[in-house]
Amino acid sequence: MRAMIFDGSGKPLRLAEVPVPEPGPGEVLLKVHACGICRTDLHIVDGELAEPKLPLIPGHQIVGSVVRSGAGVGRFAEGTRVGVPWLGATCGTCRHCRSGRENLCDHALFTGYQRNGGFAEYTVADVRFCFPIPDGYPDLQAAPLLCAGLIGYRSLTMAGDAERLGVYGFGAAAHIVTQVARFQGRQVFAFTRSGDAKGQAFAREMGAVWAGSAEERPPDELDAAIIFAPAGELVPAALRAVGKGGIVVCGGIHMSDIPRFPYDILWGERSIRSVANLTRRDGAEFLSLAPRVPVRTEVQPYPLEAANEALADLRRGAIRGAGVLVVGS
């Protein structure tokens, strides 16, 4: 099969012919149709997440169909279309797993990081961490739901019942979260890079009531803010934008250092919290909710062999919505 291989930080992905993997016990072999491009993929190839297995096939927003199953698997029939997210496996026995917090599992394995992912024509996945794809979503439109959607949804739940919600960094996750938040009756205030008129117009198109640069103060005091951009300097900016009791949620797996800030912008029972990974419950809830909104993902397709180009476009903020690799049919 064709696959894009990551050999280590500082090296571009290389296109290679490698053997089709065999599913082990509890696994399914999937023919990959599409795989979303995520900022986490950038953090891996740029060396900011420093413990990938090497060589590695990246990609963790996988849409594929079941080709065959390993021993002990009876969940999905051959041909069933499923999605594979970032959380690829958990131990099920650590204190986090036992308390319903499998996203914090001490021994978790992540798709496209410690397990080979979807930048390939075939992949294997732990059947317990595969989700049925909702009807009505073509492969390309379904792929961003599996990380941008799931992590965005978990971030939104962390924001509580905030009526006025700020979103910093208007990319794949934000354009999905905005649709869900509007469905829930919230007002969304979008923050982009300075001068990003296209991004601000896109945010308003998705339902934001206001869009401006991250350096600006919104016209109304926010109840909560979600930061998707991996820029630590946005944390003090978001704290200044939220009112008393406001929540600032950091939705990424990696962020640059947060600069020093005065206590008075945290005082008033404001809080900062991070989001780590996802649970299968998040997946079931969000993939049930998405068709009711309905969430409509904006995607920019790339062929599998153009994965490096897609990552470069993501790095410079040139993708409207979500980038998706078109792998097979």
UniProtKB/TrEMBL annotation:
<dbReference type="Pfam" id="PF08240">
    <property type="entry name" value="ADH_N"/>
</dbReference>
<dbReference type="InterPro" id="IPR013154">
    <property type="entry name" value="ADH-like_N"/>
</dbReference>
<dbReference type="GO" id="GO:0004022">
    <property type="term" value="F:alcohol dehydrogenase (NAD+) activity"/>
</dbReference>
<dbReference type="InterPro" id="IPR014187">
    <property type="entry name" value="ADH_Zn_typ-2"/>
</dbReference>
<dbReference type="GO" id="GO:0046872">
    <property type="term" value="F:metal ion binding"/>
</dbReference>
<dbReference type="GO" id="GO:0005737">
    <property type="term" value="C:cytoplasm"/>
</dbReference>
<keyword id="KW-0560">Oxidoreductase</keyword>
<comment type="similarity">
    <text>Belongs to the zinc-containing alcohol dehydrogenase family.</text>
</comment>
<keyword id="KW-0479">Metal-binding</keyword>
<dbReference type="InterPro" id="IPR036291">
    <property type="entry name" value="NAD(P)-bd_dom_sf"/>
</dbReference>
<feature type="domain" description="Enoyl reductase (ER)">
    <location>
        <begin position="8"/>
        <end position="325"/>
    </location>
</feature>
<dbReference type="InterPro" id="IPR020843">
    <property type="entry name" value="ER"/>
</dbReference>
<protein>
    <recommendedName>
        <fullName>alcohol dehydrogenase</fullName>
        <ecNumber>1.1.1.1</ecNumber>
    </recommendedName>
</protein>
<keyword id="KW-0862">Zinc</keyword>
<dbReference type="InterPro" id="IPR011032">
    <property type="entry name" value="GroES-like_sf"/>
</dbReference>
